[in-house]
Amino acid sequence: QQATGTTLARVLVLGTGGTIAGQASARAGNAYDSGKVSAANLIAAIPGIDKLSQISAEQISSIGSQDMNDNVWFDLVKRIRAAVDNKEVDGVVITHGTDTMEETAFFLQNVLDTDVPIVLVGSMRPSTAIGADGPANLYEAMRVASAPESRGRGVLVVLNDTIHAARWVQKTNTTSVETFRSPDAGPVGYVDTGSLRFLQPAAPARGAKLKLPDAPPLPRVDIIYSHANMDAAEVEDAVKRGAKGIVLAGVGDGNSSKGAIDALAAAAKQGVVVVRSSRVGSGFVNRNVEVEDDKLGFAVSLDLNPQKARVLLELLIANGITEPSAVQQAFAR
Ligand SMILES: NC(=O)CC[C@H](N)C(=O)O
């Protein structure tokens, strides 16, 4: 149900932690602790935000997103599904650390099937810093989540006046407020305190998303980072510790040393699902260029970076999709 006339859109804010909820630490210098301030208190500090929407705030976790995990992901899905199914909300905002924000966004994108805007937001400077970016980012995220034109656009990330789609967005700078980019696709829109612009029309959800198991954890998928002078050891170790899937953060177009590729081929033969991605940070990984994917039984991640390829592969394995051509098809969707 959309807000009409004088009725304000109902936005549910789910707090998970991160720098946006960070507070200066007693440890001197520029040290701070993530996740100290509740979502409700973050909102209370922003002038005029109550004129944007009717806000309810709940805390799902209070962690730096380096500690993001399946339990919090399952809790988020459960709460969002309940809110959507009960028609409690017109939009959802999730406050989140920036380190793994793209992984949570992409996870939710793959399992949630709704046109309700789901917007992740964070900040690069803690709430107590000079020039804290959290309040403006949160205001803009609320604006996006409250807007009818945000419906049917999947899971979005809003920081620094820019709106990104879950599939394409990446953190690209360790400290800058201009860190989120979509190197292969560009942003989907722009927002500031006075305006909201999407560059393309919405493409409403068409269902057939991946199912989430009843309870965590998701199947284990390890990422192996490729480098010069690489042998088979990391791949063999991953298989020994029970990885059901391996994502290669390959050099270049998803390449790796002969030793590593041979070990991956052996792993694939044993039923471990292997996906080649790239450590480069932009561009597509193509099939059968320098590596014989057809022969070795590998899939490639296309545009998905290793951390997003890992999320998708966990979900595919959980859904019983392990055959290389079926995995490849799912990556292309
Ligand atoms: N800017 C940030 O949000 C990074 C802080 C923290 N490492 C996190 O991801 O939660």
Automatic annotation (TrEMBL):
EC number: 3.5.1.1
Domain annotation L-asparaginase N-terminal: ranges: 10-201
Any Pfam family hit: Asparaginase
InterPro entries in the cross-refs: AsnASE_II, Asp/glu_Ase-like_sf, Asparaginase/glutaminase-like, Asparaginase/glutaminase_AS1, Asparaginase/glutaminase_AS2, Asparaginase_C, L-asparaginase_C, L-asparaginase_N
Keyword presence, Glycoprotein: no
SUPFAM superfamilies: Glutaminase/Asparaginase (SSF53774)
Active-site annotation: T19, T98
Record-level Gene Ontology MF annotations: asparaginase activity
Family that this chain belongs to: Belongs to the asparaginase 1 family.
Protein name: L-asparaginase
